[in-house]
Design goal:
heterodimer; A: 190 residues; alpha+beta; 4-stranded antiparallel β-sheet; B: 250 residues; 0% strand
Amino acid sequence: MSATQRPVGGHPRYARWTLAGFTLLLAPGVVAAAPITPLRIELTSASHPQAAGDRAVVTATITNAGTLPLDNVVLMLSLVDRSGTPAVPLGVEDWTASPAAGHVARLEPGHGLARTWPLRMVQSGRLAVLATAVVSGSGAVINSAPLTWDIAPVHNLRSQTVLPAVVGVPLLVVAGCSGLLWRRRNETKR
Amino acid sequence: MIARVIGLRVLRELAFTPKALLWLPISSVALSVLVYLFLTSAELSILDQKTMMFMTAQAVVLLGLLAVTVTAADAVAGERERGTLEPLLAAPVVSSQLLGGYLTGALAMWAATAIISLPYFMVVSSGSGGFFVSAAYFLGAGSLLAVGMAAWTIGVSARVPTVRTSLLLALIVYAGLTAPALLGSSLRTNWVGRAYDAVNPFANVMNTLDSVIIDEQGFAVQRMRLKTLTVFAGTGLLFGWWRLTGVALE
């Protein structure tokens, strides 16, 4: 499974020609004004987790496609629960033992940085995973396209096993404590 | 022998006092509510089973450590306030015997809480295949933490005039240890937070349980954390012994 960065969204049909005209007219200016981010980012996963408790290993790779070196590049992983609206960001550290972010002091042209996160699906729901690269020098931020997984819940707890413990243990503890107090009272009487 | 007598006396005071006994049903009911919510709550029931196991262990360590802290804070300061310390010191007792006796009493609360929690832990981990390993780490790391906390608190209690002061100091330490570890990852983003996380014994127990139960990592990963806990327990025992030496000389 692979997902690379691509533009999101579309334009209404009637606006296409207008947009094309503006693009032709303003192209040199746009190119000059837009921040140059010669960074490519790709997020891949070797497996497709299906249920809570499953594991997946995701790898994010950033490549410097430009001609100049990039200083202080940070690569981080983000998780979002998209089961409801609005989506809820999740703490990465609950899902993996690896640090959420990796850092490289200098990324030479043509070189890349890959970072791998073994993830354990600690809850069910619609999970989106995405990688983000931040270039500290230029302030450029680039996101990968998200990997989206539907994680099914696994109900291992059953009322037949839970309820006896939930009700029985407090009753046993209360009975034991009452017995100790009763013994104490008898000893005091003697 | 004297340590055993002191231990039994503290145990009797704990076991036969209605107020002290109330702690066990309260712990049991709290764990029952938590496990029942795992079954019925819309938000908690979607959690992975290993996460449920970790949360149960976390709750037990919090409850057990609180019981140990309160009991240890009452050890010497309580005896002094009740006027039972002087007759005890009239006997030929040395500081290691005093420490052993008070530790027995304080750790009994941890043992009772841990025993009560095992059925819940067993139910929550049923079918996961990780009960024995998780329980071993939970009991081992939790006991090291309990020994350290009890010994340090007994040491503080030895030179404090009243139970109230001793309890207040102990609870401040308890909050200082547990709160940052429970507040999550935001505090670990800078070096101060990471350093505190590395030396905080409670955080070490939580990280060990997280690593063993959820991430299924082996002993090699836990070695450093267990060493830190052993150092905490060892220095606590030395501190308690040193502080009780002064009391015995009184």
